[in-house]
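Margin note: ligand = nicotinamide-adenine-dinucleotide.
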Amino acid sequence: MQALRLPDWRTAIELTEVDQPEPGPGQVVIKVGGAGACHSDIHLMDEFDAGVVPWNPPFTLGHENAGWVYALGEGVEGLEEGQPVAVYGPWGCGRCVRCRQGMETYCENLMEAPIPGGGGGLGLDGGMAEYMLIPHERFLVPLPDGLDPVKAAPLTDAGLTPYHAVRRSLPKLTPDATAVVIGVGGLGHMGVQLLSAMTASRIIAVDMRESALKLAKEHGADIALKSDDTTADQIRAATGGRGADVVLDFVGADATLAIGAAAARQMGDLSIVGIGGGSLNVSFFSVPYELSVQTTYWGSRPELAELLELAGRGVVESEVTTYPLEDAVTAYEDLKAGTVSGRAVVVPNEAY
Ligand code: NAD
Ligand code: ZN
Ligand code: ZN
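Resulting structure:
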């Protein structure tokens, strides 16, 4: 079968012929119906070297996947061939406390796990291929009626990551609060919709692209601002001088972290979700009093189930631009060039 592989660090990605996977005991093979192109893949293709993360290439890209159950390994119960499923992407050991809580992102034995690596598409073979091996049935969540794999794939990361970030800030997202979303791409366009669905807070979106600001307005942003050195002042002005209660930074560059810190309200939250390589000076007088600054990584298995329910009811919907598997390299080129609206999704199989 064809698969989009990262052969080594800082090496061009390529479509390669590889063996079709077969499920061992407790494992499942899915026929891939959608694999999202995440900006993290661009960071790992272009910027990472050995030692940044505990795993290494070669592997098949695509850590944001959905499809249909294709082959069941010995002992797997409760799933049927042809059933549409989403893949929970971070694969932990399954035994540590974090994994038992469903937070496999923060597995405490990641590289001692039965399958060492960050997950499919992150050290292990991902979904930019016709078929994908899922090492344990717990990583599959059945899709609700009406949600197809193309729309579901982005929910597993571009949706789940902002869902987790919004959820942990919910106590501060009161009806009189303001939330700021910086970067309205794959993650941010879901972030705006999730804030709108889960809170009554006012939403300010920030991006450099006019098309992204338009998308934010369509999905529920009250105000959309171009990102420049006046953005923080504009956010303060729009909040009567108080600042934003919650800032979700889906870029993470020096410039956006500076906007977030300057625009945040005292006792607010600044969540750094983007892996843009920036840093922020946090000291007594450099940020508002009692500002909580945190990074967040992906989300939990129960959160993915919640989000799929929400999307199944049509409350949130991923906006997608699709590419056949032959054009997977182009999907990443477009993402890098900033011409994708919402999420670029590679579609290796159009139906079961
Ligand atoms: P994307 O390319 O789809 O979207 C990024 C958006 O940010 C674009 O709309 C772009 O125009 C905008 N942008 C870029 N620079 C900006 C600036 N200075 N000011 C305002 N807007 C700016 O990317 P994505 O796939 O949504 O990923 C976003 C970031 O989140 C990436 O760094 C990615 O690696 C990271 N990420 C983190 C996690 C996590 O768990 N923490 C998960 C997935 C992705
Ligand atoms: Zn990702
Ligand atoms: Zn674990």
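The chain is about 25% helix and 25% strand.
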